From TrEMBL, chains A, B:
One of its GO terms (molecular function) is DNA binding. The keyword Cell inner membrane does not apply. Keywords: DNA-binding, Repressor, Transcription, Transcription regulation. This is LacI family DNA-binding transcriptional regulator. SMART domains: HTH_LACI. InterPro entries: HTH_LacI, Lambda_DNA-bd_dom_sf, Peripla_BP/Lac1_sug-bd_dom, Peripla_BP_I. Residues 2-55 form the HTH lacI-type domain. Coiled coil: none annotated. Pfam families: LacI, Peripla_BP_1.
Length: 323, 323
DNA sequence: GTTCTTGACGAAATCGATTTCTTGGACTTC
DNA sequence: GAAGTCCAAGAAATCGATTTCGTCAAGAAC
């Protein structure tokens, strides 16, 4: 490993001078030339570990997400990365598999690694960011907000999205519009469902609303099973609002098994599948702007890293309905 | 920030003793009790930066991939992560967008960050890992091997996969089997195509083979366009081998636009789309075991990190044809 | 009773870069 | 020409953990 001292020796100057050249401080042209030549010959790269230890800051931001195989989160990661890279930061991606314990581990790592800040897509409402907050380490929650903590958040207007999804199905002539939402402990699931409930209550009355509501787990199998149950009802639905992309993939399977498919059976989904576009298959898509969520979260975090100490903000992005 | 010295002071011992407790060296039970109590009270987390600077090793492995939004690579990442986590390592994911310059930047970062090793899915044949090799930093290439460097690699038997994909289409009665493969500078693209060519030559003769071959870019749009071109031929194909999942999504679009679809039009694809399974849509899937690739690469890398200095190995995994 | 072993534990060096703090010399200024 | 001002650049402290080396005391061996 070639160090700053090797470069200094080769250039015939002190390590201090080398450091100055590297960091753009004032140095005589001659010294600068010598140092640059020596550094190039030795292919010197400053040791980031040492630099970080000394400087106490890191130019790395941690991004903690529940499921790296969900296209929604990869698009979000892409957004974070774009913005962070432009500001000279690297992004470290941490995948928790929706496991609160792994989430806690990664938060500890972020602290111990002296990362400049953390963007967290919380596994559930109980996510504990208190240690980060206590250390004044900037944190931004994305997609879901954190009930218990005073931290910045970026979310979408889930309730409005759920409402307009249901309304557009009713407008298209469907009469029994069901809802498959996520775990009741998850904020987005509650809000999307609430939007649906409001529209459904208006069109069909409160009567049998509960029959048409299913809580699942935001995963493919959960969606498949929930749709199968709905189809097995004495009075099955003719359409459904599904609260995320993975459950929609499962629901489509279940529909297929029953000989049904959109657009004959109405389906409106939160979030698309990029390479197998729901939109192309006669499904209404509530566009959750994942990349923009990531970009907004990164922007907010970078402001905090830059020293912004104002009160916690929440940024709400709009959903758009495609088709 | 609470340091080891704070803990030492609180426990009434030296920093040395605290370090020993943390790392499981021999200490009297009484000291150990005091230290643990103090550490708990102060919520002490050892500073990884300092630890790494001293220890020269990092318990972080870098995973550099060309496209984080491609499910193939996220599945691969999952495999790497599983294996690495089990061995106590964290994984840092770096996304290059197929840009050799970004790849080079991330390789520099891996060096400067003292990562324990790097797993690289090379953007193209020219990927330059010489600096890693020169520093004796362990590297494993995954998915594609590196022509110019003596490094470990994990790949699949692309040629055999391409061959069996084409054969199974001929066996199903298709007679004009085309091929849409990736960039000619990419090894996997060449091999998959070569497998197809061998089978196609046997069944239809060498005559018009080139008409039925298209090089695209491994992306959705490339697949769409290539398929559109094939369908516009005077004698269009009745089936095709497509060399990756994204191009297959595009090819499906083009087929759809022409009023065609599997299984009427024969399609065999390298790699599935997890949430919109090709398998369910009458498409033959050559299963590229992405997760297993990741696991194998991580295993190899961990062996190298552990000190294995043997000659470079290449592990070849088998593809399986589904359905 | 003296020497040797053993074990616990602290002082200090170390990792590599950055950041004071100094120093020494060139250049002004009166 | 003496005093003051500047500026480049080196010496040394610093970040926080680990590790080497040395010390001290208790117990063992003869």
């Amino acid at each position: 490993m070639v160090t700053i001292y090797d470069v200094a020796a080769r250039a015939g100057v002190s390590a201090t001078t080398v450091s100055r050249v590297l960091n753009g401080a004032k140095v005589s042209p001659e010294s600068e030339r010598l140092v640059r030549a020596a550094a190039a010959e030795l292919a010197f790269t400053p040791n980031r570990t040492a630099r970080r230890l000394r400087g106490q800051h890191s130019a790395v931001i941690g991004l903690i997400i529940p499921d790296i195989e969900n296209p929604f989160f990869t698009a979000l990661a892409r957004g974070v990365e774009n913005r962070a890279r432009a500001a000279g930061y690297s992004v470290v991606l941490c995948n928790t598999d929706e496991d609160p314990e792994r989430e806690a581990t990664y938060i500890d790592i972020a602290l111990a690694e002296h990362m400049a800040g953390v963007i967290l897509a919380p596994a559930d409402d109980a996510s504990d960011v208190s240690r980060l907050v206590a250390q004044r380490r900037p944190v931004v929650a994305v997609d879901r907000s954190l009930a218990h903590a005073e931290v910045d958040a970026v979310t979408v207007d889930n309730r409005a999205g759920g409402h307009s999804a249901a309304e557009s199905l009713f407008a298209a002539g469907f009469t029994r519009v069901a809802c498959i939402t996520g775990p009741s402990s998850v904020e987005t699931a509650q809000l999307r469902m609430a939007g649906w409930r409001q529209a459904a209550a208006r069109h069909t009355g409160d009567g049998h609303l509960e029959d048409l509501l299913r809580y699942a787990d935001y995963r493919v199998d959960g969606g498949r099973q929930a749709m199968a149950e709905l189809l097995a009802l004495p009075e099955p639905p003719d359409a459904a609002v599904v609260a995320n992309n993975l459950m929609a993939a499962g629901a489509l399977d279940a529909l297929h098994d029953a000989g049904l498919a959109p657009p004959g059976f109405g389906l409106a989904v939160f979030g698309d599948l990029p390479f197998a576009s729901f939109g192309r298959r006669g499904i209404r898509v509530v566009d959750v702007p994942a990349r923009e969520l990531g970009e907004a979260a990164a922007t907010l975090l970078l402001e905090r890293i830059g020293g912004d100490a104002g009160p916690a903000k929440t940024v709400v992005l709009r959903t758009r309905e495609q088709r």
